[in-house]
Please model this.
Amino acid sequence: MSFLLAVFVLSITIVKQHVFASSETFLKDGVDGGDLYKMVAEMAMKIRLLEKSVGQVEELEQKVAEQGRIIEQLRDQVTKCELTSCRKVESDADIIRKNITAPHFGKTIMQPKSGFNRGRETRAGEVPEHVAFTAYLDHPLTGLMNGVVIIIPSVLLNEGAAYNVHTGIFTVPVDGTYLFTFSIVHFRPNQILAKLVVDNVGMVDAVADADGREHQSSNTAILRLHQGQNVWLKAADVEDGTLYSLAHERYCTFSGVLLYT
Model:
C-alpha cells in the first residue's frame, strides 16, 4: 500500500510539471488562450482525482493497520483460551486416572477448582445439611472402553455440591447411609456393562444388551459410606461402546442422596 501511495504522489507531481511545461509551450507558440484554459482545467481535474485517490489509499492503509492489530489481539485471546482449556482437561484427566487406579476404600481425590453445580454450595470444612444429586447424559457417549469412567455432565440437582460434573465422581462429604441409582441405554448390537463403584470397588452392576434395538437397564444400591470416599459409574466388558441419551430424552442418569447420618 505504501508503494502505491508513493506512485500516486509521484503521478500528481508529474502532472503538475506537465501542466506548467505545457502552459509555457503554448504561450511561446501563440496558442489560443481558450485552448490553454481548457487544457489546464482538464489537468486540474486529473490532479484532484489523483489527490482523492491518494486520500483513499491512506484511509485503506489505516484500516488495514487497525485490522492487523485486531487480528493480533484475537490471536492472543485464542492462545490464552487454548492454554486454559488444555490445563483444565489435563487436571480433570489426572483426577480420573487417580480414581481408576485407587486400590482401596477411603482414598480421597481433589475436586477441580471449577465446576457446575445446581443447589446450595458449602464452604470449606462445612458439613452440608442436605446432600442429593441427579445427573443426566445430554448427548450420545461413544467410544466407551473397559474401565473408563462414565461421565454424566449435566445436573438437575446438586445439593451439597458433592458431585463433580467434569469427572463424573461423587465425593462423600459426610459419613452416612446413601442411596444411589443409575440407568443406561445402549442400542448397538453388543452389550455394555455399567458398574457402580466405590473407590474403584464394584458394588452393583447393570447390563444393556441391545441386540439391534435400544435397551435400558438400571440398578440401585444403599451403602454406608465414609467422608472422602468416591463413587462413580464405570464401563466394563465393552470395547467401543455407546450410551444413548439426549438433552430432551434423558435415558442415562446417575443419582444419589444422603438418607441419614
Remarks:
- The longest strand covers residues 176-186.
- The longest helix spans residues 33-100.
- Confidence is low (pLDDT under 50) at residues 101-121.
